[in-house]
Structures are given as C-alpha cells and as structure tokens.
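Q: Could you fold this chain for me?
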Amino acid sequence: MKAMTRVLGRMWCAMLWVGMAGCAPDLIKDYPFDGELSGTGHFTAEAQGDGTTLSFVDATNKEGFVYVDLDKAEELSTGDALDKNTWELSFQRFTITLNGGGGGLGNVEAAVLLNADFDALTQAPADGYRKDGSEGVFTAVEGGWYYYDLGKHKLTAKTELTYVIHSTDDAYFKLQMVGYYDAAGTPANPSFRWAKIAPP
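A: Sure. Below is the predicted structure, expressed as structure tokens.
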C-alpha cells in the first residue's frame, strides 16, 4: 500500500510539473533582464547629404544597452538584439561594445586607423581587424575612443581615430566618434558619423 501511494504521488507530481511547464511564462517577455531599455527611440540616424550619416545615442541608462544595427541604420530592442543577433555596436554610457569576441555572439570586428583621412577613406583595409576580448576595441586600442580631462571630469572624442567596422551582413563601415554630450551638455549622449565603404 505504501509503495502504491509513493507511485501515485510521483505520477501526480509529474502531471503537475507537465501542466505547469505548459503554461510557464516567457522569461524574456514576463521577466525582462535588469536594465533592459523600454522599446527603442534611443538612436537617430541623420543623412548629411555627402554620403555620411550623423548618429546620436541616448546611452544615459546606467544599466541598459542601446543596440545599433549599422546595416539597417536602426536600433534594436534588447529582445530583438538577443533573438536576431544582427547588431554591430552597443552603447552604455561611455562604453561601446562590438558584437563579437567577448562583447557578443556575432562576428563583428573592427580596424582602428590613426590619423586617417576620414572623408577620403572609401575602401576598407585588408587587415588589422580585431574583436572585443578581455578589453574592448573601443576601450583599449589607441587608448580608447576618448580623452578624459580629470580636472573637469569631461570626455572628448578622439576624432583622429577612424574605426572600420566589419558588420554582421559582411559589409564595411567607416566610423568616427564626434562627441559625448548633447546640445544641453548632458553626458552619455555619444554621437558619431559614419558611412558604408567598399570591402577590401
């Protein structure tokens, strides 16, 4: 009798577990990640009429990331970024991450050119590309993408650096960071100009 009770108890638990699993919540939709941004609207892309685009990112959230798909010139929500994996860059305050290496599951890589003529650059270099590792490309290569004034606690973009991004769609983009503040002087609003260029 005790053995039968144990068997019936196990069967009941199994049926209960199957029933619960059938209506289990979607963890991403019902329990979003800490710091997940609400929707999109944190990225703009303004064509400049010379083949380049000027973009502004609202990266003021201290926990969430803004995911940017350069191939489509659009922002991806956190859910879409994780599902589609088509983003090239993510922004969080002054941190810029590549979707590749330690920064993501994609194969995005970047070459960093010092003192290159941004406007004259029409073709991507054949080599010199790297993915994020223990340190990010935008963080570590050539000392990172910005200067930091310790006295004024202010960031200034290193406009002498040109980044060539090899995208998830196997395209190439040149990118130059422009600033870190919006028109009102609010920090964590990085801006950059960029354009598609020919492959190597």
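A (continued): The longest strand covers residues 172-179.
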